[in-house]
Amino acid sequence: MKKILKAEVFKLVFYDMSLSYENYKEEFMIGLFSTFAKANQTAKHYQRNVQGFSDYPCDYLIIPKNVIGTTNNIRKVFMVEGWNVNENLDEIDIIESDCFTDENTAKQELLEMKQNNDRSEWTLNRYTIDECLWKDGFVRV
Fold it and tell me: Which position has the higher pLDDT, 50 or 18?
């Protein structure tokens, strides 16, 4: 049985509005944060100071994610993601699981999601809470 902790994590995702189009958003996952306030503070910092995010018309979303597991001291989580690829080689039809504190439980979720969802690509990712994935920003080529 899955046990959902009272604590959530908060996924911070930026998207570049001018590179997005119908059914697709050019997204940058910044990370998973222990509080909404930390995610929001990080987003404001990126908008003001980080190359690309401060230079182009980018906006962001903070998405609460359930955490499934048995520990109260969450430092890392695992998340399953699946997607298809369109003719422009962009990732579309993205689905993702809750977050798991146990890797074996996440692997089981990956198997279940593969059986129940038709996606061409799958991944099981490990995230460290409060760690930024995009540290240096980006430039357009």
Answer: 50
